[in-house]
Amino acid sequence: MTATPVTVSATAALALGDDALVLSHRLGEWAGHAPVLEEEVALANIALDLLGQARVLLSMAGDEDELAYLREERAFTNLQLVEQPNGDFAHTIARQLYFSTYQHLLYGRLAASQSEFAPLAGKAVKEVAYHRDHAEQWTLRLGDGTDVSHERMRRACEALWRFTGEMFQPVDGLDVDRAALERDWLDSVSDVLRRATLAPPEGPRTGAWSAGAGRQGLHTEPFGRMLAEMQHLHRSHPGASW
Amino acid sequence: MATAAAHRTTGAPAYGAPHADPDGGARQRAFDAAVAADERVEPRDWMPDAYRATLVRQIAQHAHSEIIGMQPEANWITRAPSLRRKAILMAKVQDEAGHGLYLYSAAETLGVSRDELLDKLHSGRQKYSSIFNYPTLTWADVGAIGWLVDGAAITNQVPLCRCSYGPYARAMVRVCKEESFHQRQGYELLLALSRGTPEQHAMAQDAVDRWWWPSLMMFGPPDDASQHSAQSMAWKIKRHSNDDLRQRFVDICVPQAESLGLTLPDPDLKWNEEHGRHDFGAIDWTEFWDVLKGNGPCNEQRLTQRRHAHDEGAWVREAAAAHAAKHAAEHTGKHTGPTGVEQA
What we know:
Chain A is mainly alpha-helical. Chain A has helices at residues 10-28, 37-61, 64-69, 80-83, 89-111, 118-143, 147-161, 178-195, 221-236. Chain B has helices at 6-9, 24-36, 49-68, 70-74, 83-108, 114-122, 140-157, 166-194, 198-217, 229-234, 242-260, 285-295, 299-312, 314-335; strands at residues 270-272, 277-279.
């Protein structure tokens, strides 16, 4: 029996890798700023898991450092959701809730598939289950905590809602039932929000401009500045190894 | 052993006993015997008030150092030049938060709370290691911190694994394992730079030049100016003098610097054949005391960021507490259900 050569879809590997890379970077910005020491540990832990996933995915598409440090903003295909600035703790948690629920459902499906992403997804789905649980628990604490935290969590969920539709746009080489994924995602997130005494936001989940935008390399303004910081040192020493 | 352990069992129960100590001298003698016999003092044991206070001060300062120490390194997380280095640095900063947590727990066994200690840090009533008041100006500083600062910390902390207070000694075993891993990673980072481009090599040398003397200051004032040393050594909290540990560190670093291909910024540093150790130049103690008093390059910035994180996080901690209170009430309700089984 000859092994079927696996053709890696660079497009899909980059899309998933960029999501993990960019969100990991954002979470790394929390180091030394978290509201409680336990969250210093938890946020760094999640950031590290995501960075590990990013490295595997980017390596499937090429050289991880070349891809991370030498592409321009227009060549990054991450979701706009993950590049959103951290904001307050509620914003960070809302972003985590939306993304980790999506990633958990997606990786669960990929792990059970024949796709080239199955081995990665099989390992990552365990990490992501923890991220999802962390985000859900904090959504409950903040939503159903004090009046102040409830209001902050409500605003964060609404502010980021418009970026959630993009997760279900088609990606070349990523063969999943997107409609079912979106249904499961909506069910799960709505349920968590309701348990957190928050109503699922009513606004649109994609804007006229943002539909599929990050995946096409169209990003929001804060992203360029994030990349400038991330890439500066690497770009200052062309060809150096670290 | 039996005689020494008497400090645990003499007379009335040691723990929770009010000032009723009809024979205070007996407890003191039992404590002294236990320490002399290298036994571990545990949280429920009787201990002199001054011993307790010294440990609280030292463990809290150690915990604070881990927490403040996250800042100079976190300063480079978002700029790390490769994904591998970024992962290593993130893991390291995460470990430091974890060390802070162990150490606050160890301090809490002495009857203080983490909140109380953090409050003392934020109000400047308790200190942290003065090394973290120096800025990280280039990527190579991350390597210099790993190699020199963590190296100095390990030299200081390995003897603490045998410290007379059990919870502190046990925390140190775990901390030292992770610290020595970080130290090797820092060394390896500098080695990569030293063997890299001329610009990278210069960056590594510059970082070592800036971090060498502050690292030597981590061992504290010279023995003749160290106010707590004699008592701490008698209590076996401390096992070696500041100057002894500093000497040990210099002797370890010299050959390491050579194999890194980097120099140490001390023209007086040379091997002393007669004493079998390296002689080294005079430390600038004026700078040391100045940084300790709050006038170092980053004292203000470090404390401000720490206070800011704490203050900005207050609403999150309040939310968690409010949620837990509601939830606890719910749980009580659930468990009083007629079947005794948790209701949905």
